[in-house]
Automatic annotation (TrEMBL):
Belongs to the ApbE family. It is an enzyme of class 2 (transferase). Pfam families: ApbE. InterPro entries: ApbE, ApbE-like_sf. This is FAD:protein FMN transferase. It comes from Brevundimonas faecalis. Keywords: FAD, Flavoprotein, Lipoprotein, Magnesium, Metal-binding, Transferase. It catalyses: L-threonyl-[protein] + FAD = FMN-L-threonyl-[protein] + AMP + H(+). Residues 1-33 are annotated as: Disordered. Its EC number is 2.7.1.180. The keyword Signal does not apply. GO terms for molecular function: transferase activity.
Length: 368
């Protein structure tokens, strides 16, 4: 078995010895057109806490979740299941606009004024605003009014007889949106509600939830695990056979990219795709990802963006941001920020893939 320097036990050769991916697509064992990705790692894997692998699953945040973990001795599956569900319920109570009593719903429907925020809400809001600043608003936590207007929020889909909002409605929603318009009172740990502004963490929430669940599992002694929520994944440690957590990366329908598997060892991966949540009107696709500079769904030709990062929250947010930036500015920014990103663009000649140098550096040496 050949190994990449500095990455003990992470197989770098494409072969049938690679375990099948986590239930995200068909098993790729034995296929000849499989792309293998080995993200870089700065540390050697530690021995897992036992020789067992437990699988947990459930539903939350409007999607499904799954966890595979190596448990420490003396624990039960029921305890881990309860811990994951408790963590996700806590996130919903903070950040779900579909829950009327959640903290985000209370802020979104509050009258104009300054409102104190809980420590966890304050932390995520600041992280989201920092990311918005890094990408010039390409991911923006203040677009809730636009999300609702286009039929992707709690009010539900638009009336089929009136499928598109008017220019005046878009302008009105834009007037109460924009990360630069949200003022914070740092001494009071509070945010200023100008009146009508709606926060929305849909570009960051699932990734944040993955990070939180992973941290909870680690605290309970399950230092080797794979967490997946709605397609966003994070792997920690290795399995009892010293293999990393192998997963198959979701691809856009008709993508020219080969079937791709990645070794998730202390790394997360997130994918943004225009086919996931969208509606079609007069043969045009309107995806749920919105461009805060126009107030409208993105329409730049990008079908999919996949990002690897140490944090699932950042991977989730950056996949959204690069989608908004488009097939030219997106790769340019990703390369400047040394982001491992893969792009699939719809063009007149069909789907075309692009990748950053950091992504290409992860590929099996035979493919690079």
């Amino acid at each position: 078995m050949e190994r990449r320097a500095g990455s003990p036990a992470l197989t770098t050769k494409r072969s049938s010895s690679a375990p099948p991916p986590l239930q995200l697509g068909a098993t790729v064992e034995g296929r000849q057109d499989t792309r293998v990705l080995i993200p870089p790692t700065a540390r050697a894997p530690e021995r897992p806490p036992s020789d067992l692998i437990w699988s947990l699953a459930g539903e939350s945040m409007g999607t499904t979740w799954s966890v595979r973990l190596v448990p420490p001795m003396g624990t039960t599956q029921e305890a881990f299941q309860a811990a994951v569900e408790e963590e996700l319920a806590r996130i919903i109570a903070l950040f779900s606009p579909w829950t009327p009593a959640s903290e985000i719903s209370r802020f979104n429907h509050a009258p104009a004024g300054t409102w104190e925020l809980s420590p966890d809400f304050w932390t995520l809001l600041n992280a989201a605003l920092d990311l918005a600043d890094d990408v010039n608003g390409a991911v923006d936590p203040t677009l809730g009014a636009l999300v609702d207007l286009w039929g992707f929020g709690p009010p539900g889909p638009r009336d089929p007889l009136n499928p598109l909002p008017s220019a005046e409605e878009v302008e009105a929603a834009l007037a109460v949106s924009g990360w630069r318009k949200l003022r914070l009172n740092r001494d009071a740990r509070a945010a200023v509600q100008p009146g009508g502004m709606k926060l929305d963490f849909s570009g960051i929430a699932k990734g944040h939830a993955v990070d939180r669940v992973s941290a909870r599992l680690t605290k309970m002694g399950a230092t080797s695990h794979l967490v997946e929520i709605g397609g966003e994944l994070l792997g920690r440690g290795v399995k009892p056979d010293a293999q990393p957590w192998w997963v198959e990366i979701e691809t856009a329908p008709g993508s020219p990219a080969p079937q791709t598997v990645a070794a998730l060892f202390d790394v997360a991966v997130a994918t943004s795709g225009d086919w996931r949540r969208a509606f079609v009107h007069e043969d045009r696709l309107y995806p749920h990802t919105l461009d805060g500079s126009t107030g409208r769904p993105v329409d730049n030709g990008l079908a999919q963006v996949t990002v690897f990062d140490a944090s699932a929250m950042r991977a989730d947010a950056l996949a959204t941001a690069l989608t908004v930036l488009g097939p030219y500015d997106g790769p340019e920014l990703a390369e400047a920020m040394q982001i491992a990103a893969h792009f699939v663009e719809r063009t007149p000649r069909g789907l075309v893939e692009r990748m950053t140098p950091a992504f290409a550096a992860m590929m099996d040496e035979e493919e690079a």
